[in-house]
Amino acid sequence: MSNDSAESTTSTGLTPEQRLEAPTTNLIDAGIATIHDMATLRACVAYENANQQRVRILRRLAERAQEIRTQEK
Asked: InterPro entries in the record, alphabetically (predicted)?
């Protein structure tokens, strides 16, 4: 696991794998919705790219990145 992944679990206790490999799409969506920083988001994108590369998940992560960027302004 990379340092970004380890650091991203500090605030929530969830790894990218736990966020993105949940048994239902509702739990995956909740895992994405609870990402509040870009380090966690980058770790999740890296995890998804290295594993399943699901377009819907990557699209949702991109949407969440835009939301985070908007909140930071």
From this structure: DUF8129
